[in-house]
Records
---
Amino acid sequence: MTARILVVDDIPANVRLLEVRLLAEYFEVLTATNGPDAIETCENGKVDVVLLDVMMPDMDGFDVCRRLKSDPATSHIPVVMITALDQVSDRVRGLEAGADDFLTKPVNDLQLMTRVKSLVRLKSLTDELRLRASTTRNIGIEELLSRNFASEDTTPKVLLIDERKSSVERIEKMLRDRADLDVTSDPHAGFFQAAETSYECVMISTAFANFDPLRLCSQLRSLDRTRFVPIILLAEEGEEERIIRGLELGINDYLMRPIDQQELTARLRTQVRRKRYNDQLRASVTQTIEMAVTDGLTGLHNRRYLDSHLQTLFDRAVARRRPLSVMITDLDRFKSINDAHGHDGGDEVLREFARRLRKNVRGIDLACRFGGEEFVVVMPDTDGAVAEKVAERIRAEIAQKPFAIGADGKTIEVTVSVGVSSVLKGVDTVAAMMKRADLALYEAKSGGRNRVVAKAA
């Protein structure tokens, strides 16, 4: 695993010590001796993790962290504060500033490397999502990245898996009004509950009498539905090796007992904020992919989707020796509708036609807007005779019921011409099948419109 780590400390000896440790693990190391230089480095270079000293002159680590986390360009960079301060209040202050974790001097090598590697994995995931989102069109990425998820009013839904009643009662009291908390004492039941419910964090106690909590962590990380749910381990003093192993398995954070309420809520808020951030990125990518293959006016698939999917349907039909038919429809004299009622009226007609088209085909059929007023329907497992009947039913549905347009509900007569073709036995291609349907459509329009023609169907 390679990554670029920024070490920030005003004492050269401390910088050199961390640099040597990180270089030994083949990380690329950048250094800064003050807050402004650290911020500038993060803004101008690719930084994967920041190791930030707290006690610095002029601008301390809390201020640097706050500045990094408030800037959309750097807010996704994990920050680990390294300090001689070991009070809970200091950790809470750092977490409130947006820090992802705290390490206390002198830093344990194993803890340092395990934590850095864990955060590098999280950063890689975020970077991939940011890249996909930023390279898609019309995504509003800057607005998304500037959102402050930590301040959202939505109460996070959290699952606590802990078999000790006294521990559960304390945590329930700490998180009252701060989280929608579900509790289970059975780790096996907890696994299924986490898989079946959309939690924003799962907290797992290490204090099970007859169960290894890390096995549960591993199971949650191996399941698609829970792979990205933050896991916080609630550990006992002296369980450093278990914590390190948990971080290697993919847990996101941990708390040592006795648990401080402020630290618990701050760490929970940090994990929920990061999850919401990445969830929004994933949703944006998914939405953009959907936009790329969907016609915005009618909600049907567009030609791009048809071009990529029709070949798959054709190959499957040929391989299985099953029928496949296609129809191309064209609204008759659509230009005159636009001329008489404007493009808004024309758009209303297209939307209504798409609605009727969708109503008259099956769920397995592929209905697409081909372009302008042309639509294509691909019908798997449908021979030419049946496809022609479906086309006739659609034609009649359009012709028999006038289309309402405008705020006054004025109606106009609309008709459609349809060309149909099917896969031919022997040698055939998608292009040839579509050409036959197009020729059939041309015959339907030149023959008087408002009719269906099946070409070699």
---
Amino acid sequence: MKRVIAFFLLVSTLSLTSCDEAPVYEKVYSFENKSWDQQQKLNFKVDIKDIDQEYDFIITLRTTTDYNYNNLWIFLNTITPSGKKAREPFEIKVTNPDGSWAGIKTGTVVEFPLKFNSRKLPEEGVYSFVVEQGITATEITEVLDMGFRVDRVSKEK
């Protein structure tokens, strides 16, 4: 009986997860000693092959509950395959006005996803997305990691 239940759970899990398409790109940078120095830039290189496709871009910040700020400003530098550059500031809200966590808290870890508007990219080739922290402190602590993910937007959306 246990084998039947285990087999049923395995088949159910596989059928649910097989519907999800794998991300086009996904990478996570972990910060040594939970510290992000202002000079440390995170470089994510994404090879875009289909310019007719819309993509979702998601940055995920994970901190400990000892993080000292109510937000984190970052700069996202985009370099196209032909070398065109853009630099945009973004705020990741860490706490709500009442002081509660704005992200998903599990134990002493809090996760903050930042999803950008779906968009098409103008050129095929390798894009560089460089993330740098944009606060005045030369170093921020209690930062565990930052991930960058690119998904295809479903045609059904």
---
Amino acid sequence: MKNTILLLISLSFILALSNSETANTIPKGQFEVGLFQPLKYGMTEKVELSTHPLAFFLMPNLTIKNKVGDGTAARFSIYYPTYLLRLLTREGSGGLIAPDPTIPGIPHMVSIRQELLVTKSFSSTIITAKAGFSIATKFGGELDSRTEIEFPTIYQRLNVFYNGHGFNSGLDIRHSFGKLDILADVDIFYLPEDTNTTFIEHKSMLIWNKSNRFQTAVGYKLVYGEYTDGKDLDIVPVFDLVWSW
């Protein structure tokens, strides 16, 4: 891999972006995919499968969303980041984890996140609240804290592998003006145990629904939280193209 840093930036967008954070599932037999959004498939009218295709071969992942009631869904996600972290352990360009003989190698590890989503519709506005928890387990060794990647959106999502568990919550508001939607959301990540800190993410986007098969989105994302060397606020532009068929 010639440019792992660009790949990591892409993965940070992949892990953090979504234009459709609701309890609804896509219709049975339908596919949906974006440049930075997961590939989704409507397995049944109540069950939706999704995976991040660009990340899959470096960080295998799968999400299952099950609609359990009117406006309510349970979402289950599983991630295996071992190969990605091992790839980033290198000297020079593309290395974000410096190799050190005193640091044990990256072990095999898996994280599981379980979330509850509740969606309410009010005329042209859709509001979704969510809450969840994550747990992680490691096989064949421990993960040294010196391997932490203090990169926006990546740090708080990988923290579960260092502390064993974590919590998240969020609120998503989407208002429609015909073919143009405005999306604003807030996500909170609570990192327990060693850090006992909170990360706050906010995203705002304009989404143009050209048709039922294609949409474009542009906006920004803010990330605020406390890293090892102190608190920091980051802002990045975001965009996406989404296709359905």
